Amino acid sequence: MNTEIQLIVRKKIAFIANTAWSMYNFRKGLLKTLIAKKIDVYVLAPYDNYVANLESLGVKFVPITKLAARGFNPFGDCRLLLEFKKALKSLRPDLVFTYTIKPNIYGVVASKLVSIPVVAVITGLGYGISKGGLLTRIVKLLYSFSLKNAEKVWFLNTDDLHYFKQNQILDEGKMQLIPGEGVDTMYFRRTIPFPDDRPPKFLYAGRLLYDKGVEDFVKAIALLKEKGLNVTGALLGFTDTANPTAITRKTVHEWEAEGIIEYWGNTDDVRPFLEKVNCLVFPSYYSEGIPRCLLEAGSMEVPSITTDNVGCREVVSDGQTGYLVAPRDIDSLAHKLEDFVKLSNDEKRNMGKRARTRVEALFSERQVLEMYYRQIAAFPHLKEIECSV
Predict the structure, then answer these.
(1) What are the φ/ψ torsions at residue 25 (nearest 5 degrees)?
(2) CATH number (domain holding residue 31)
(3) Same-domain check for residues 212 and 290
(4) Which of the 8 DSSP states describes residue 153?
(5) Residue range of the domain that includes 111
(6) Total domains in the fold of the chain
(7) What is the rounded CA–CA span in Å between residue 90 and residue 196?
(8) Which residues pair with 15 in a beta bridge?
(9) Where is the Glycosyl transferase family domain (predicted)?
(10) pLDDT digits (tens), the chain, 389 positions
């Protein structure tokens, strides 16, 4: 008697990013749901302290050694392209997603060279384009060359999408807007009452970079204290990163010693810190995608004061869920901080409730996951994957 043996071949999806940290912190929900659907998930990125976290989810990590954080070196970037190509040729994934500038350039080209479909995600224009000059021209040319090889290019905000349209970097038919990276509104959910405002507590949470407006926040808090206002300003995040605009631990300690701010260190779980503050302050003038910290704060019913800047203004509704201020304007920022202090606690609390309602409606992780699954199922060789969350 003949017995038929059906060989079930698991589908493979690879993600190329500039850090394991970003894949774990921004896309953990996506990775977990794909693995739950019996898909082999690979992350290609430089090794960092979050590799173990990814592997604990069931992710197969592939270390990338040639990805330099800054600058474009023709020889180094050729080596990066060859490293991507070698890894993808060995893995033979069914689909690739890429994030940030170099993966979006060289990861897309490498995928094309080994005939693997790829979706590029523009997570913000970043340092390469925002710097201006020769570097901007180089990045635009490289994007134009590489992204024509992507099946789809996703944008996290309308400003970035319009930039690519206006500069004719990419065929409009490939462009699609998605609602940021999404946030798990059930995980980021308030468990204790909104705090009273004696004294009001303002928090910056994120990478401690000058172009994220950290120094502007510290100076604005100093202005309020000079006026005799009893407020607390706190910083939460990593210091001394490889970024050229990183703020050193020494500078943070000097701000502490002057009595301007408190440094609360860094954490893998921002929720208890958000629950004890009245407002998140994120005065960034960086070319953001959709700032994760604003989504997490809103989901936790915490109002935000941020800049009228790309990505930031997508999240905060001025006067309703927080305030928008002009970038690089310390006086404007201090004025809005003072306006917030003068609100009653009920007004602050209601502003936070509206923030959560907005995040649930526009930026929930569920919406983003559904877009990923629709895109995955659009490829004929992946159509059998259940495209629901």
Answers:
(1) -80, -30
(2) 3.40.50.2000
(3) yes
(4) E
(5) 12-182+364-382
(6) 2
(7) 57
(8) 43, 97
(9) 195-357
(10) 454 444 457 899 999 999 999 999 999 999 999 999 999 999 999 999 999 999 999 999 999 999 976 666 778 899 999 999 999 999 999 999 999 999 999 999 999 999 999 999 999 887 666 666 777 888 889 999 999 999 999 999 999 999 999 999 999 999 999 989 999 999 999 999 999 878 999 999 998 999 999 999 999 999 999 999 999 999 999 887 767 788 999 999 999 999 999 999 999 899 999 999 999 999 999 878 899 999 999 999 999 999 999 999 999 999 999 999 999 999 999 999 999 999 999 999 999 999 999 999 999 999 999 999 999 999 988 877 765 55
Nearest to 18 by CA among 54, 49, 44, 41: 44
CA dist., res. 138 & res. 177, Å (int): 24
Q: How far, in Å, are 104, 124, 228, 280 from residue 344 at the CA level?
A: 46, 36, 19, 17
Inter-axis angle of helices 214-226 and 330-342, to 10 degrees? 60
Measured between alpha carbons, how far is 182 from 290 in angstroms, rounded to an integer?
Answer: 9
pTM summary value:
0.89
